[in-house]
């Protein structure tokens, strides 16, 4: 963070920091995943942020679309040089997934870099879908930025339903080439980040045809522009998809092929091959391994959700400590808005959710690494569970994060609506995460498939995988005895999830027994399946969050343990109060216990209040990364709002030309 001198800091924020009763650094270490990770992140930040190239003289949002894109490319190039020449030196390839790299990227780009998908998906797909020989060919070029790539899967007509993609890749054994073609308007590739004007290569997911037979979708590396002139190759039509709600510097593009040829070697052949004569050979043991990049990105998006929510919470909590409004007690000074319990209710759940998602995200990452290690040995048994886990966690984390970032904006009143607060841009960026890499509903339904099967296994007494093991106890179908202890609450959330899953399974069974097809019975149950999947995910987050807090604070100072446990308990109680209808249905909770729970929630808000600023300081965001007039470390909110306002092009002259052109003639009746 940019601390400046203490004298510059807003007096209310100074007092808040004196009130903080725990060691902030210890919490930072927990959030980063360990002291070594924090030190590495800080090292990366020091290297990357000590250059002026990240600073815009004119605020990004005051530039027109083309200027913004050009500026984003300029900064992307400077940033890529730093990544390539300095950051990869610090951490090696691991840097690509490091929080330091992710954070420093935000210092350069208020919106999104047109290179984001190059590092975010193009490089990971090369690592995940290429043979070692192909990796040796493509990876150094990509890391050296000699080529820039995008990931084009979605089409104008299909995003969710990958099997319905229409782009074809037909093998021609005579020339040992694939012929890429876009047979219809709806087969146009659409949305790929970096594709419109920036990328010269693209991973294209297309229906593979060889020897007259379709083998389903496969990924190909496709050169689309000349490396020197950057002109699209003949047979390639590429451009920008038009203005979007956010991501306007991300260069999302469209792409069409007209009988466009690429060498056979450009098919990514780790999981399936086409031999020179056109014979198709399946290498992978699991049908869905070509979907691997999506699983990887979904896993990373959980921590991405935590990261963005932590930024919003930092902005809103610091602002709420500086902002004073109203006079609840006559004659007394106006309170800091952070003293209003309603404001605490809006904001402390944001801090707690950022912790919950970050710690669950780190746990998911470790699970992902373990499954990957198994798969390297040829064992794909745990892939379905990972898919179910990453699908629902991606859905719920991105959805919660977007909703709570919007709540942070509401919590900042009118000033939260200023682009200079950075909350609107943050929201427009994060709300897209609910859609991309698998839509919310669609992913929850993927998890639901796994849950219904697990329920059937539980009923028949089979051994269950770890994340659904709780279903075995619930198969007895009795209401769980409510207790407001942490374990008791987690047990109740699990009972809710189990009850909902059981109801779905029963509904499907009932419908099929009366002659409805399985497919229709499934569709008729999808509203409840989504709810069951969400309940399962919530129970899992609660369990993982609490487990990680207990584990990670075991060697911490007592005060850190206390504040971390208060936040985790707040998260559980918040969700119990949000889902009282479900608890009444599936546990023995009664009205007096609900009243007790409400009191407990309000007590927790009061207990967390003195540490609120300390808790957001522990997220350790430098001002360059927050980009916020309301959230800077020093709390000079009003000064910064004024400084930013004065940078508006509308303040360059005291009278605009439109006055002379239109307003004056209108007033004089001469228009
Ligand atoms: C500084 C730089 C760094 C910055 C770092 C920032 C963060 C990083 C930024 C990235 C920024 C991204 C920007 C957006 C990039 C896109 O959006 S790329 C496009 C992503 N597109 C999607 O996600 C599409 C979503 N759709 C799907 O995934 C699939 O179509 C669906 C919905 C899973 C259905 O697939 P399907 O083949 O029809 O399969 P379906 O018949 O439903 O199921 C068959 C079986 O396969 C299983 N299955 C399905 N999928 C899988 C899977 N993936 N694995 C295993 N099993 C699976 C099912 O569970 C099912 O099993 P059973 O129940 O039969 O046992
Ligand atoms: C900012 C952004 C960046 C993106 N970047 C990329 C990229 O780099 N590369 C790329 O390939 N793609 C990219 N995408 C595309 C993205 O992956 C898709 O938009 C996403 O997967 C959703 O697919 P869709 O747009 O076809 O939505 P649809 O599938 O058409 O969804 C529309 C609605 O229908 C519902 N629906 C669809 N199917 C079902 C079903 N089976 N059951 C119930 N409901 C259903 C959905 O829940 C949703 O409410 C990007 C998208 C955005 C917004």
Automatic annotation (TrEMBL):
Q: What is its main location?
A: other
User: Which prosthetic group or cofactor does it need?
Assistant: FAD
Q: Tell me which residues this entry annotates as catalytic.
A: 437 (proton acceptor)
Cleavable signal peptide: none
Q: In which pathway does it act?
A: Lipid metabolism; peroxisomal fatty acid beta-oxidation
Q: Which GO terms describe its biological process?
A: fatty acid beta-oxidation using acyl-CoA oxidase; lipid homeostasis
The segment(s) forming the Acyl-CoA oxidase C-alpha1 domain are: 291-452
UniProt family annotation: Belongs to the acyl-CoA oxidase family.
> Which GO cellular component does the record give, naming just one?
peroxisome
| Locations listed in the record | Peroxisome
Q: Which residues form the Acyl-CoA oxidase C-terminal domain?
A: 487-667
Q: Which organism is it from?
A: Papilio xuthus
Q: What is this protein called?
A: Acyl-coenzyme A oxidase
Extract one GO molecular function annotation from the record: acyl-CoA oxidase activity
Q: Where is the Acyl-coenzyme A oxidase N-terminal domain?
A: 23-148
Sorted UniProt keywords: FAD, Fatty acid metabolism, Flavoprotein, Lipid metabolism, Oxidoreductase, Peroxisome
């Amino acid at each position: 963070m940019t601390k400046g001198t203490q004298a510059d800091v807003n007096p209310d924020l100074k007092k808040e920091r004196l009130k903080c009763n725990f060691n902030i650094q210890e919490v930072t270490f927990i959030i980063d995943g360990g002291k070594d990770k924090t030190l590495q992140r800080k090292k990366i930040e020091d290297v990357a942020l000590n250059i002026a190239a990240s600073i815009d003289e004119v605020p990004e949002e005051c530039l027109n679309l083309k200027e913004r894109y050009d500026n984003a490319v300029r900064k992307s190039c400077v940033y890529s040089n730093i990544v390539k020449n300095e950051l990869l030196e610090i951490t090696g390839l691991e840097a690509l997934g490091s929080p330091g790299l992710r954070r420093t990227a935000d210092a350069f780009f208020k919106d999104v870099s047109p290179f984001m998908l190059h590092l975010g998906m193009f490089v990971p797909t090369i690592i995940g879908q290429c043979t070692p020989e192909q990796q040796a060919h493509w990876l150094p070029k990509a890391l050296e930025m000699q080529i820039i790539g995008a990931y084009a899967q979605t089409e104008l007509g299909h995003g969710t339903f990958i099997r319905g993609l229409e782009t074809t890749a037909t093998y021609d054994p005579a020339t040992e080439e694939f012929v890429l073609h876009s047979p219809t308007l709806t087969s146009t590739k659409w949305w790929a980040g970096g594709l419109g004007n920036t990328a010269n290569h693209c991973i294209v997911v297309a229906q593979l045809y060889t020897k007259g037979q379709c083998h389903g979708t496969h990924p190909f590396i496709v050169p689309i522009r000349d490396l020197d002139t950057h002109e699209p190759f003949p047979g390639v039509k590429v451009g920008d998809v038009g203005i979007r709600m956010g991501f306007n510097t991300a260069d999302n593009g469209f792409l069409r092929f007209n009988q466009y040829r690429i060498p056979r070697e450009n098919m990514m052949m780790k999981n399936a091959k086409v031999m020179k004569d056109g014979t198709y050979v399946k290498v992978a043991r699991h049908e869905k391994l070509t979907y691997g990049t999506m699983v990887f990105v979904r896993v990373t998006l959980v921590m991405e959700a935590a990261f963005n929510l932590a930024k919003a919470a930092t902005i809103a909590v610091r602002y709420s400590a500086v902002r004073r409004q109203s006079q609840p007690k006559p004659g007394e000074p106006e309170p800091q808005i952070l003293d209003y319990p309603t404001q605490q209710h809006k904001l402390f759940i944001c801090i707690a959710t950022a912790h919950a998602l970050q710690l669950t995200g780190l746990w998911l990452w470790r699970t992902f690494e373990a499954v990957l290690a198994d798969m390297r040995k040829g064992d794909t048994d745990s892939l379905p569970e990972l898919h179910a886990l990453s699908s629902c966690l991606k859905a719920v984390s991105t959805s919660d994060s977007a909703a709570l970032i919007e709540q942070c904006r509401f919590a900042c009143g009118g000033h939260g609506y200023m682009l200079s607060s950075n909350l609107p841009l943050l929201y427009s960026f994060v709300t897209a995460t609910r859609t991309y890499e698998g839509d919310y509903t669609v992913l929850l339904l993927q998890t639901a498939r796994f849950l219904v099967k697990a329920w059937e296994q539980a009923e028949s007494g089979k051994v269950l995988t770890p994340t659904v093991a709780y279903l075995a106890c619930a198969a007895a179908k009795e209401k769980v005895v409510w207790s407001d202890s942490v374990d008791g609450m987690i047990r109740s959330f699990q009972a809710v999830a189990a009850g909902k899953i059981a109801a779905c399974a029963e509904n499907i069974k009932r419908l099929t027994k009366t002659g409805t097809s399985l497919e229709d019975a499934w569709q008729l149950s999808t509203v409840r399946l989504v709810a069951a999947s969400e309940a399962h995910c919530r129970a899992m987050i609660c369990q993982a969050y609490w487990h990680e807090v207990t584990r990670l604070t075991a060697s911490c100072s007592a005060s850190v343990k206390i504040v971390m446990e208060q936040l985790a308990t707040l998260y559980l109680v918040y969700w119990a109060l949000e889902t009282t209808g479900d608890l009444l249905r599936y546990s023995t909770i009664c009205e007096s216990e609900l009243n007790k729970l409400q009191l407990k929630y309000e007590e927790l808000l009061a207990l967390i209040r003195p540490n609120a600023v300390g808790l957001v300081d522990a997220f350790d965001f430098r001002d360059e990364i927050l980009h916020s007039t309301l959230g800077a470390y020093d709390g000079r909110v009003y000064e910064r709002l004024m400084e930013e306002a004065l940078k508006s092009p509308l303040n360059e002259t005291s009278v605009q030309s439109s006055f002379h052109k239109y307003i004056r003639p209108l007033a004089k009746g001469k228009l």
